[in-house]
Amino acid sequence: MSRLDATVLRQSIHSDSLQRLEELEVFAEIDSTNTYLLQRPGPPPGMFRVALADHQTAGRGRRNRDWVSPPNSGLYLSFAYSFAAYPRALSALTLAIGMAVIDALAATGVKNVLLKWPNDLVLDNAKLGGILTEVQHEGRTAITVVTGIGLNIELPAGLDVGLDSEWAQRATDLSHVSGGPPDMEALAAGVVDELASTCVEFESGGFARFADRWPAFDWLLGKDVVVDDEARSIEGMAAGVDRNGALLVQTESGERHRVMSGSIRLAKG
Hints:
By secondary structure, the protein is α+β, with helices and mostly antiparallel strands. 22% of the residues lie in helices and 29% in strands. The protein has helices at 6-12, 15-18, 33-38, 93-107, 174-178, 184-205, and strands at 21-27, 48-53, 74-83, 114-116, 120-123, 126-138, 143-152, 224-228, 233-241, 247-250, 256-259, 263-266. The strands form two sheets. The chain has a seven-stranded mixed beta sheet. Strands 11-10-9-8-12 form a five-stranded antiparallel beta sheet, with no helix packed on it. Strand 6 and strand 7 (143-152) form a beta hairpin. Helix 1 crosses helix 6 (184-205) and helix 4 runs antiparallel to helix 6. The longest helix is centred in the last third of the chain and has 22 residues, at 184-205. It is globular. The mean pLDDT is 90.
């Protein structure tokens, strides 16, 4: 049996979100909540599905990395939303989703969480969680996007979570920063509400609706970074994002590079 109470969770979700909720499922154990939703038909346009689990046996992160998901240590939530038409700047949706999760955390009293472009949640320079956004289906018009959210709640001592030591030497969890575990249903409901409203807003206006707020969430802003991808390595200062959510890196020569994907690490001083 899951420690998450589906009935209490439903009762905690805002009525505006409930009108768009097609299905909500809670699992004690599953291979991956994202994989589960990707294997199911997408919800009707404007609607969403949610899957949550206490334990993932095959959790996935960005760039095909494993997401360590031990039992009763985190909140593992996936959210499938169908857009009626291909939204503008879809690549920036992960940033908007990250901002939504941070807003949900702030509502529970967890302040000062930032986002390391494009998908790592950071608190006090430690990794608090992550986001994985995947396209489930592209039709002539409608498109379904599945977003997985992993938040560390109470990590076992000594757990190897596979951190990238080039930017984060440690992980943190909500129990540590808040003096105890949060109300799981309230936290999950808050995340669902924020994701639902964010997807609706993103559908109507793309990333432009979120761009003005982004600098306050940007952990990389002003830091010296190295971007590695299959074709090149770029070193410079992180200078925010463009209107499509691409990372901007300014080199010493003044050249500004636009980065859509790659591994981001902090430059050694």
